[in-house]
């Protein structure tokens, strides 16, 4: 039986939602091992002028505890 734990992460990117998700997983993987999944809970953007400035995601990253 595996024991799993989740952490909530907020990440942003000037490029895309996909880039923001990738940044979150890569950054979390520097301190958390055995990442198994990421569940995107919310997506939003910030606007400057009439353009999208940042893509933001809130996600739960789940990992296996050894």
Write the topology of this structure.
Elements: E1 3-13, H1 17-29, E2 35-48, E3 51-65
Antiparallel strand pairs: 1-3, 2-3
Structural class: alpha+beta
In CATH terms, what is the architecture? Answer: 2-Layer Sandwich
Task: Write down the CATH class.
Answer: Alpha Beta
* DSSP helix fraction: 10-25%
Main β sheet profile:
3 strands, antiparallel
CATH superfamily: Flavin-binding protein dodecin
**Strand tally:** 3
Instruction: Give start-end ranges of low-pLDDT stretches.
Output: none
The overall number of domains is 1
Secondary-structure element series? EHEE
Evaluate the radius of gyration. Answer: 14 Å
DSSP strand content: over 45%
Spatial order of the strands in the main sheet?
Answer: 1-3-2
Mean pLDDT comes to 96
Report the end-to-end length measured between terminal Cα atoms: 11 Å
Coarse morphology? elongated
Tally of DSSP helical segments: 1
Q: Per CATH, what is the topology?
A: Dodecin subunit-like
Q: What does this entry look like structurally?
A:
With 66 residues, the protein is α+β, with helices and mostly antiparallel strands. Helices cover 20% and strands 61% of the residues. The protein has a single domain (3-65), classed as Flavin-binding protein dodecin (Dodecin subunit-like), CATH 3.30.1660. The protein has one helix spanning 17-29; strands spanning 3-13, 35-48, 51-65. It has a 3-stranded antiparallel β-sheet, covered by helices on one side. Strand 2 and strand 3 form a beta hairpin. The longest helix has 13 residues, at 17-29. The mean pLDDT is 96.
